[in-house]
Amino acid sequence: MLRFGVLLLLLAQPARCSACPPGCACSEAAQTVKCVSKELRFVPAGIPAYTRNLFITGNRISRLGPGSFAGLDNVTTLSLSNNRISEVASHTFSSLHNLRSLDLSSNQLALIHPEAFAVPGLMLKELNLSRALYNHSSVMDLATSLRWSGLEGLQSLDLSGNGLIYLPPRIFSHLSGLRRLQLANNSIVSIYNETFSGLGQLEELDLSLNALKIFGDEGLAELEHVPGAKLHLGDNPYMCTCGIEPFTAWLNASRVRVVDVERLVCLFPVELRNTSLLAAGSLVLGCHRTGEGDNLALQTSYVFLGIVLGFVGLMFLFVLYLNRKGIKKRVYDMRDACREVWEGYHYRYEIDSDPRLSQVSTTADV
Fold first, then answer.
1. Which neighbouring-strand residues pair with 5?
2. Domain definitions of the chain by residue range
3. What is the dihedral of CA 36, 42, 43, 45, to 10 degrees?
4. Are 154 and 129 in contact (CB under 8 A)?
5. How far apart are the first and last CA of the chain?
6. Domain 20-288 grouped into CATH 3.90.1150.30
7. pLDDT tens column, 139-196
8. Which residues contact 60 (CB under 8 A, 6 or more apart)?
9. CA 57 to CA 157: how far, in whole Å?
10. Looking only at Cα atoms, what is the longest distance across the chain?
């Protein structure tokens, strides 16, 4: 009887092996299937139904569609990194009713359909899209997908290393349950209004290794939209000019929130390179002193100009005083000349207006 049982076990062993797709390694005990670096062009068929952890990485799969994972209801962890995936169709993962972690890192996503990440029952908790977007323009497709895929239960989103230049307004507003947001190693130049709208439960925000030169009023307001989040702001090219004063004041008041606050330094101008932003406030006060000096110099110029004009005016009056007699004589001469001219015009007018005087004038001329 014992031999018969052993025989059955031996017969079952090859069957279990044959249930594993070619190019994959399956472990029923660990409920894990790995299809790693086998040049696969499609998600292999026949993956065992017991699979909870599925790793299909380092292959040449270009597209994922709704039928790619049919029958895999038990999968909770799915890694599809480094597969050259360029398109993810809507409802690709809809058959994965228990999916909690999805890794699409190191792919080339150029076309992301509106409901690409839709998973039933708000089960998806972690989504890794680091180094996954084909270029920074793919962020618009991503924003639409995040809005339409019903990811209110998502807790961790990794978008690091995607060369993102900007983030559309309210891109994360439908991820109300998000706790951790990774935006490191991009090219983000500024944070605008409503960038982090709807992320009231965020606990960690990583903005390190970007192109942030300054946080203006809008950017600081966005950081205040996530008051409970620990912030990573290091390795950005901060420009320590007078406009950075509100940011340095905010940093000094928010040291507990900024994890790497001690490592935040100025990159520009060159003479302030590697100066701590925490100490930049005193340097910014120097900007104010410079401004006051400029105003003082301008006021001094106005005073000097007034003095010069006053001196010129006094000199003019002094010259008039010294030549008062000659000026008076000239005035009298001009008055007499004007009077003579006026009397001549008046006399001529009387002659022309009276015919008798005109006749007398003519006779006198004869």
1. none
2. 20-288, 323-356
3. -110
4. no
5. 177
6. no
7. 999 999 999 999 999 999 999 999 999 899 999 999 999 999 999 999 999 998 789 9
8. 39, 40, 41, 83, 84
9. 20
10. 177
